[in-house]
Amino acid sequence: MHCPFCRNPDSRVIDSRTSDDGLSIRRRRQCPKCGGRFSTIETASLNVIKRSGVIEPFSREKVMSGVRKACQGRPVTEANLALLAQEVEETVRQTGSSQIDTNEIGLAILGPLRNLDEIAYLRFASVYQAFDTLEDFEAAIEQLRADHRSARTVEDASSL
Fold first, then answer.
1. Own/partner pairs for 152-159, CB < 8 Å, 24+ apart?
2. How far apart are the first and last CA of the chain?
3. Measured between alpha carbons, how far is 116 from 108 in angstroms, rounded to an integer?
4. Quick one: signal sequence residues (predicted)?
5. Is it the case that residue 131 has pLDDT exceeding 80?
6. What does the angle CA 69 – CA 148 – CA 71 come to, to the nearest 5 degrees?
7. Which of 52, 53, 72 is nearest to 64 (CA)?
8. Of 47, 92, 122, 156, most Cβ neighbours within 10 A?
9. Whole-prediction pTM
């Protein structure tokens, strides 16, 4: 890490702390040449491989932006979107890979979005999974209904 004051290529770490989300480390550094102190934030890099083959850094904001479109007119707040994006990032980081395909990010979005708002989930899934016919929508809706029925069955069994 170059010193931002004198451009010395060396620095000494004085203090390290994990950030609030646990995904980055804040380090307090001091330059041995000029004595200047500065902070750095370090994160493990996570790159996205787009369909075109272009590689770019993962962005929670891009996840939020894509999901925001599906949530238009729905009772979903920015805080909900931020939590969803954080959950998606944690999921893709758990794969242990430093590069992830956009398809895998889409799959990681579907689960949390379904839990957040089923209508937004259907909107997102219809674009992401390229629904072509009414039957595609019907199949997705039937799957949601089946999951609701099985969840009720589990609840009923646990209340006995």
1. none
2. 62
3. 13
4. none
5. yes
6. 10
7. 72
8. 92
9. 0.70
Backbone phi, psi, residue 100, to 5°: -135, 145
pLDDT tens-digit readout, 45-85: 899 999 899 999 999 999 999 999 999 999 999 999 999 99
Residue with tokens 């620095």: 11
Burial pattern 111-127, b for ≥16 Cβ within 10 A else e, equals ebbbebbbebbbbbbee
Q: Closest Cα to residue 81, out of 118, 57, 117, 48?
A: 117
Measured CA to CA, the distance from residue 105 to residue 90 in angstroms comes to: 11
Residue with tokens 């006995």: 160
